[in-house]
Amino acid sequence: DVKVTQSSRYLVKRTGEKVFLECVQDMDHENMFWYRQDPGLGLRLIYFSYDVKMKEKGDIPEGYSVSREKKERFSLILESASTNQTSMYLCASSYGGRVTEAFFGQGTRLTVV
Amino acid sequence: KNQVEQSPQSLIILEGKNCTLQCNYTVSPFSNLRWYKQDTGRGPVSLTIMTFSENTKSNGRYTATLDADTKQSSLHITASQLSDSASYICVVSAGIGTGTASKLTFGTGTRLQVTL
Which pLDDT band, with edges at 50, 70 and 90, does B94 fall under? Predict the structure, then answer.
């Protein structure tokens, strides 16, 4: 079974803090993604990576950065958390090339106060 | 712009009843369409995938259909159970070759509640 594991289920952070969300997959997938999910808006792509040290901006990258130093790990960084970044964050991974299926982690519910 | 629209936004049905969820898309070029089930507070889990040449595919009590001409898909749930209560998300993948991660376009989901 594919396993995509996110480091935290719930996080509460203060405005201005630097926040790290970690994601690890055990299927040797080339592609990894970070999404945020908000009511009525569905899943929106923040960043994705198709190889180690490679990254591309998604639809809403502002206020976020990512790091992929190892193939199995993809980190999302909120440089200075703001209340409008309160959301559910979902990490996903897939095999390389054309994406036929993305496997999702359990999600991290982040609240910025 | 690639878009995926789902209807209804939410639905309440009695246990044992059937229901059908709709998905319309404008994604080009089309590669495949997948239905995901997302339980509250969890990540989405794939139910079924439809490619261009497939019209119908079943997975237990779930049956997905695809009409590539009208760019519509439906997910039919038969004999609903309380555990079917979840959000159902339609996701369309654009076929733009290999070498880079193609983007997935997500619908906003249909929230289904099955009651006694």
Answer: confident
